[in-house]
Amino acid sequence: MSTLRTIFLTALAISMGAGCDQVLSPPAQAVVEEGELEVAETSDDTPPILSTEVEFWAVRGEAREVQISYEAEPPYDGKCLRFVVPPEALLRRPDGSIVEPGDSVQIAIRLLDESRFEFEFDPRGLQFDPAHPARIEIRYSWADLNDDGEANADDWALASELAIWRQEEPGQAWMKLPSTVLEEEREVHADVNGFTKYALASDRQSMPPTFNE
Predict the structure, then answer these.
(1) Is 62 helix (H, G, I), strand (E, B) or coil?
(2) CA atoms within 13 A on the CB side of 88
(3) Is this structure's pTM higher than 0.70?
(4) Is 24 a domain residue?
(5) pLDDT at residue 18 is higher than 90
(6) The pairing of beta strand 118-122 with beta strand 197-203
(7) Residue 110 in domain
(8) Which residues, at least 6 apart from 139, have a Cβ–Cβ distance to it below 8 Å?
């Protein structure tokens, strides 16, 4: 009886341990091929972009930020994308050299197509400190997620499927970043550790049937 009890308790402990491992293990990061990513598109009545490309100098030791904006009347600030670089974010240049305190790096961001939320960041290969990452904020107020030509409450109800995705090189797979959807602000935020191409999107396997159909 004692032996059976010991075997039972041992098996139970192993089973519980396996269950704990499954619960505590982080989920795998989603990766999809380019043809499987549905980049969010803009509505027909989206205001013009003031400039599809912005440049600024990021400085190690200083907080810097830049914004791509729509033409808009106050109090709406016209935000499309905002990029924030905390003081300690800059880490390495594309050649691998350390960015020392006080050093600066010129950063350029381009909206590749005014009808899609897809952006290219330079210099490609720039690295940020994972402990002090940079942050991308994309506002989806003008996103047409159900392909009816308008941006309204029907689209915003689908925004929970959105995330910020990263592509290292043209044609390569896209990787989903841990993203936060702020419903009140109609924005999606994500921390980034380096430069490449980023998009506001949903993969076709996870999106509801009404997303861009």
Answers:
(1) coil
(2) 4
(3) yes
(4) no
(5) no
(6) antiparallel
(7) yes
(8) 79, 80, 81, 185, 186, 187
Number of neighbouring beta carbons within 10 Å of residue 85: 24
**What CATH number is attached to the domain comprising 77?**
2.60.220
Q: Does some domain include residue 74? A: yes
In a domain, 12, yes or no: no
Identify whether the C-beta of residue 105 lies closer than 8 Å to the C-beta of residue 99. yes
Answer yes or no: is pLDDT of 11 > 90. no
Q: For residue 49, what is the DSSP state?
A: B
Which run of H or of E encompasses 109? strand 104-111
Local structure of 3: helix, strand or coil: helix
For residues 11-50, one letter each, b for 16 or more C-beta atoms within 10 angstroms of the residue's C-beta and e for the rest, the string is eeeeeeeeeeeeeeeeeeeeebeeeebbbbbbbeebbebe
Please answer whether residues 126 and 196 qualify as being in contact, where contact means their C-beta atoms are separated by less than 8 angstroms: no
State which residues form the domain around 71. 30-203
**Distance of alpha carbon 132 from alpha carbon 40, whole angstroms:** 28
Tell me the pLDDT tens digit for each residue of 136-189: 999 999 999 999 999 999 999 999 999 999 999 888 999 999 999 999 999 999
Q: Give the C-alpha separation, 141 to 46, whole Å.
A: 9
Instruction: Report d(CA 178, CA 165) in Å as an integer.
Output: 9
The DSSP bridge partners found for residue 180 are 189
| Among the listed residues 118, 100, 101, the one whose alpha carbon sits nearest the alpha carbon of residue 109 | 118
Dihedral sign, Cα of residue 22, residue 26, residue 27, residue 31? negative
